[in-house]
Amino acid sequence: MTVTVNFSGYEGPVTCGPEETLLRAGLRAGLALPYECASGGCGSCRAQLVDGEVKTLWPDAAGLSERDRRRGNRILMCQSVPTADCTVKAPILDGPTVSREAVPERVTSRLLGRVELTPDTALFTLDFRSPIDFLPGQFMLLESPDGVRRAYSMAHPADGAGSTTVEFIIRAKPGGAASSWLFDKVQVGDEILVEGPYGRAYAQPGSERPAVCIAGGTGLAPILAITEELLVENRGRRVDLYIGARMAGDIVLLDRLARLNELGARVAVSVEDPDFAGTEPAGWAVFDDSRVGRVIDHVADDWTDLSDHDIYLAGPAGMVDAALRALVRERGASADRLFFDRFIA
């Protein structure tokens, strides 16, 4: 059933198709709606349902507080599928609609390969019938037959005309519904429903500013894509790439890090395990610097003033929040030149 949605503050009604979320319908219509994770965890797309009815994909989504739920009319646009004509009051972003971003679509892919990188992390390769366009640093939602949706970032830039094969770095979460499906049930050749691309923490074109790229855990995927794009676009640009992990063995795809080093990036790694010496995987020599401790502390140690830098962050929410505090408050990083994705557990 197709319904009509009016977004207060935006011109004209928006048509919303069957099983289409308010967020995707609005983005498809060219509205500059706020969002971050697009999967219910962050609350960035919180809005007020003024009139009408919606179906909630994830009733217990962490992006809504208990106070929001008590009000009864607060919704997450990324989790709300309208079941009747409705009116939504959503925040309006400053500035013009972002025209570079491809419109999110729901398409079917096939699992082409799953390669183990560590005991709990794998490189998934999906095959698409038609080329998929996306910006370096964006992500897609992978959806199970049971309706479980999780966001995963692409680990490389798209080809010039879009990519028919797309790679994701995915870590298994003990007891996680998506992990059980992706690691234990899906077989090579099986179909996987995908929605996207989403995300605004992508490589910004045309900037001459030096860049600092910081990855924690599987946040490596979007940072790989962003760093490659920055270096290919401007080989003379300074790019410092920082990788953080708990254990040395958690650092993966060292061949790709070596490639970025060859393109001109300075690559540094921070390992929280104080006894990691002697446990380094093959290819460790790619790193210009390796230290014990938190990656954010090492970035702060290396830079006293980041006011003229572009900064890209991807990793666990705690790491990103710590980085925002340390780099903006203490190192002068410009908030409008800091692009980040929090990976919601």
Automatic annotation (TrEMBL):
UniProt keyword list: 2Fe-2S, Iron, Iron-sulfur, Metal-binding
The keyword Protein biosynthesis appears for this protein: no
Keyword Nucleus applies: no
Cofactor(s), names only, from the UniProt record: FAD
Top-level taxon of origin: Bacteria
GO molecular function: 2 iron, 2 sulfur cluster binding; oxidoreductase activity
Domain FAD-binding FR-type: 104-204
Residues in 2Fe-2S ferredoxin-type domain copies: 1-94
PANTHER family, A to Z: NADH OXIDOREDUCTASE HCR, PROTEIN RFBI
Protein name: Putative ferredoxin
Native organism: Rhodococcus wratislaviensis NBRC 100605
Phylogenetic placement of the source organism: Bacteria, Bacillati, Actinomycetota, Actinomycetes, Mycobacteriales
